[in-house]
Amino acid sequence: MLKDNLKDTILIVDAKTLEWLKGKSRDEMLGFALNSCKAIADDVWTNIESWMQTSRAEPSIFSMPGTWDRSKCAGVIYETKPEYKNLAIAVRTGTTGFGGKIAVALCMDDSSLQVNNIKPTKQNDAEAASNQIKWYFAKNDKKHVHQIVAILPREAEVPARVGNLVSGGAVGLAFLKATWAATALFLDGDTPESEGPFVFAKATNVVEALKHEPVSVAFAFYRMRSGGVFQLFVQVDSPSVRSQIGDRYVSERAFDLDSKEDVELIERLISRNQLEICFVASGAKGPCTGFFGLRTDFPQTARDILRREFDDLVSYHRGLPERNPQSAIAQYNSENPMEDTPVLDPQLESRKFTDITEEQAVNMIVNGGIPREGIHKVTSSRSEQEKMSEGRGKNPDEATANAKSNIPQEALDIRGPEVIQQPEKGSNSIEAQSEEEARGKWRAQKSADAQLDSLRCVTAPKRRFLGIGRKAGVWQASWSRSAVVRFRYRLPIEITVTWFKQAQ
Length: 504
Known about the structure:
Number of helices: 15
Radius of gyration: 34 Å
Largest sheet: 5 strands, antiparallel
Structural class: alpha+beta
Mean pLDDT: 80
Helix content: 25-40%
Low-confidence stretches: 39-45, 111-129
Strand content: 35-45%
Distance between the termini: 60 Å
């Protein structure tokens, strides 16, 4: 039986999900994890889900660093618990409604016949999307620029393209001496795929802080008074990066549109069906030691716009009667001060959906004409949950009406009314030295939902014989208790899809 062969249940989560799980009960954790991963569960996995729900074994929780995939998840388990290296580990990954990531891992005894049937399923749409590039078009008329900004996800991380980058010429020498810089270069290779060009970013002293972060590569087209300027920017900006290095990381490289070699390099770069960036810095192998890279497919739609923008910029540049590259760069510098990032922010649009899955919501946006790689993020502002609405009134009908008025319009599966409490009236006598004392005694005797309707003095307090002390008076308290009616209902999941507005 599964119970005999399942050695451990492990939840593997990112930092955001780990924070959410703090203080949650076992059932809450397992239910949350299984719900996040259920979209990719097969029949065998569903059987295991059922067993997990009825077992009482406490799940372990590990935090997942770095690139997120099933083999990495299993690697974390084997590294943390070496005694599990002889066990088979089945992993299902998923995405939480608030943008976190989570995996459920089952550590199974190899002798289990069932474990042979537990195979990783193919990535679902949400998982595949996390490995894809995102991009947007932006412009700023005051800065005379159009930009196509590609965002490479942290999941696209690959080994460094070079051990140590060596490049000749003035541009190569400048890159070699720089602390932070960006460039694009060809490499020696037998095929166009290995030859490039590739984007390189030098990040001396900060390169380790940039690992496992999304990276923006901006292609910028400036129309200045005395010439066109093509700039390539590499930016890494996140709370984690800012806390470690005190600022965002941003580097740039300007290309000469009067140089045949530079123009050919740009044309080859924006024509490639993959975009790859390699981060280098001073290290063990030299001043441009390769540390890591990111590589992902570059959508044809984005490349078509890049081609159009570059052709328009070259035509503008060559059509000027007098060109002065130094003056054009000076204008760029004056309009883009050092303290501001030159990478333009996107314009965003969003739409909310209720009672459908994240995948269905994304498909509706994509079917409406937004490219899948233009989806910025998918969030859940609330998870599906059971709710109650209680109403009070003089009678059950009035209480029912009040309870109904508090139920949101989008509520589903409304059940009720359930009469929790019938209306009640009564009266009692209270001995006290004053009205204030009588009210206090009444409040102490009755439940919090009872209401004091009137308090009448029947016998006034009076002084005792010879004026020593006072004899308590008598108050008559009339009270009532409202009828209470309850409805139960379900609020649907609310999914918000945000995408880059492709205003061109």
